[in-house]
Design a protein that fits this description.
Elements (H helix, E strand, L loop, with lengths): L7 H8 L3 E4 L2 H9 L4 E6 L11 H12 L3 E6 L21 H15 L13 E4 L1 H4 L4 H7 L6 H6 L1 H8 L6 H4 L1 H16 L3 E5 L3 H15 L4 E5 L12 E2 L2 E2 L9 H9 L3 H11 L4 H8 L6 H17 L1 H16 L9 E4 L1 H4 L3 E2 H7 L6 H9 L3 E3 L2 E2 L6 E2 L8 E5 L3 E7 L1
Parallel strand pairs: 2-3, 2-5, 3-4, 5-6, 9-15
Antiparallel strand pairs: 1-6, 7-8, 10-13, 11-12, 11-14, 14-15
Length: 416
């Protein structure tokens, strides 16, 4: 990237490694240099929480506001009913309106940790595209909006082309998604003066469609900016772990587990993640990322503390770090460890240690649980588990027990 930006926001995007592409670097940079500029990112409501894979976009909105501009978080109350086909091998399952609204309620909680929704000139807006999509008249929409789209061009976009090349079905419902997202951009520009859309690089085709539609209908110049689609250094998709998605909502993932996710970052990713997911100065991120040997663990703890503080607050980060030290350095139980509760009815005449490993999430199958035990990968109260046939009675569970998988995964079992 050789372009030298005038605006602070573009400088941050480039220097911290967010930027993948932009429709017009100089044009957007000039616009940002002139004053408060509104920009948006859309979030479809396909689950009750966003996960870490969406955090790069949330951080972009945070930096937008911190550099003097106006973020718009757009909830996809309308577009979720269609489903984004971008780089998917199959169609998303259709959700009911109640499910979508419940998901939006859950998703909204996380944004206030990162963005301020005040009444000032840079105060963020929380909008829902159902406001303008649900009342569209189909024939009017086809005549006024649909006529501006070339099917030939839509078929050429990589997100669609890859599905067709693999001979995987692309429904007419999904094919409409890019038209609706383009219309979102048009409406946000018309209603709120939104000047650019941000998103992951898989959204490039949808963003370009919105820019083209707005130019044709309103004769307004608007812009698009995409972020990197992050994978970890070992090629895994950001936001996933062996135990599933790293959710951002506390009711779906504890602050301790969130902290541990960052603490377990690979050495090669530490410097890059410090730039993307914290607000530490770039020189400090580079210094910490260059640490070698056991010292890199200090950098990972800083990454975990900074990332957890932004989402859950400083106290949660401190508690997670102290719990981690208690568990790993002192062999303690740790109040913030993931907890699984059993009733006496669950235990009955006895419950096997294999079942406990599965129920606590440390193993997904009985076969995996038995393999963990046979390979000395499981512990009970910090002592190696050697008997896969062990059965625990109610009396054995009167006090909480700690199960461990390797050195980093733990769960506390409580009897109700």
């Amino acid at each position: 990237m050789t372009y030298h930006p005038k605006s602070e926001f573009m400088a941050v995007m480039i220097q911290r490694g967010f930027l993948a592409d932009c429709t017009d670097y100089q044009g957007l940079d000039e616009a940002l240099s002139k004053g408060v500029t509104p920009a948006y990112i859309g979030f479809d409501a396909t689950a009750k929480s966003l996960h870490v894979g969406s955090l790069i976009q949330i951080m972009m909105l945070r930096w937008l506001q911190k550099t003097g501009h106006k973020p718009i978080t757009l909830m996809g109350g309308g577009t979720t009913k269609v489903g984004d086909p971008s780089f998917r091998a199959d169609e998303r399952p259709l959700l009911t309106e109640t499910q979508i609204n419940d998901n939006i309620t859950g998703i909204k909680r996380v944004f206030e940790s990162y963005i301020s929704y005040d009444a000032g000139p840079t105060g963020a807006l929380m909008l829902n595209n159902a406001e303008w999509l649900e009342n569209l008249n189909y024939l009017d929409f086809l005549r006024d909006i649909g006529r501006h789209f070339s099917v030939n061009r839509m078929l050429s976009f990589e997100s669609v082309k890859s599905r067709i090349d693999r001979e995987q079905s692309l429904s007419f419902l999904e094919f409409n998604y890019m038209i609706l997202q383009a219309y979102d951009f048009l409406e946000l520009n018309r209603r709120y003066g939104c000047l650019f859309q941000m998103g992951g690089s898989d959204q490039w085709g949808n963003i370009v469609n919105g820019i083209d539609l707005t130019r044709r209908v309103l004769d307004h110049e608007i812009f698009g900016l995409t972020s990197q689609l992050l994978t970890t250094s070992d090629g895994k998709k950001m936001g996933k772990s062996l135990n599933g998605a790293i959710w951002l909502n506390t009711d779906m993932l504890s602050p301790y587990e969130f902290w541990q996710f960052w603490r377990n970052t690979t050495d090669a990713d530490t410097g890059r993640f410090l730039k993307l997911y914290t607000e530490l100065p770039i020189d400090e991120c580079d210094r910490l990322g260059a640490l070698a040997g056991s010292e890199i663990n200090d950098a990972k703890i800083i990454l975990a503390n900074e990332a957890t503080t932004l989402l859950h607050g400083k106290m949660a980060a401190q508690t997670a770090e102290s719990t981690s030290r208690e568990v790993f350095e002192k062999g303690g139980m740790g109040d913030e460890l993931p907890t699984f509760k059993l009733s006496t009815q669950d235990v009955g005449d006895g419950i096997s240690i294999v079942q406990l490993l599965i129920r606590s999430g440390l193993a997904t199958t009985g076969k995996e649980a038995k393999r963990l035990i046979s390979e000395d990968g499981a512990k009970l109260n910090d002592a190696p588990l050697t008997d896969a046939g062990l059965v625990l009675k109610v009396a054995d569970l009167k006090n909480p027990i700690k199960l461990s998988k390797g050195k980093k995964k733990h769960a506390v079992i409580h009897l109700l």
